[in-house]
Amino acid sequence: MHRRKPKVILIDIMETVVVEPYLRVMPHFFDMAPSAFMKEKHPTAWIDFERGKLTEEEYFQCFFSDGRAIDGEGLKGAMYTAYDWLAGMQDLLTRLVSAGYPLYALSNYAIWYQMIEQKLNLSRYLHWDFVSCHTGHRKPEAAAYRHVAATLHLKLDDCLFIDDREENIDGAKQIGMPAILFTGSGELERILVDAGVID
Questions:
Q1: Which CATH superfamily is domain 8-19+86-194 in?
Q2: Is the CB of residue 160 less than 8 Å from the CB of residue 197?
């Protein structure tokens, strides 16, 4: 990454800032093996929920391919309990904010991001404007990154994007947005220091 300070930092949330409980909590909640859960869940319902195409109630109604009823509120409670900071990330976000960077979540996630906010109060550090359930765009689609830059009236290379998935990093880089693959808070801190983003 070149040594040029970004005007904003865009950061993925799940498995970059916050523990992702999807494949750990959901199968356990339904007393299923992960492989059985993946086979029986509806193949597109979660993605449609992330895009804002399904309401929460509609998501619960088609959660499993066979349409069986589920305890939606119970599932939400289990997810809420599992949301937590990844090690070192609260301190690193504090450091970035103290350095004067506006931070925005660029996240593929459903309206359940509101539960994360309720529990962890991430809005102390970042803005939630670019969650896919509101924008309709999911990474690594080019529109997901272009929408952010256009909304903030910035060039793509004015932004710095951080994510734990290589395909999302590649999607950003392919259209000219600098990006860092997240592999842990310690390594991210080293990269940011080396790039001159933080001291």
A1: HAD superfamily/HAD-like (3.40.50.1000)
A2: yes
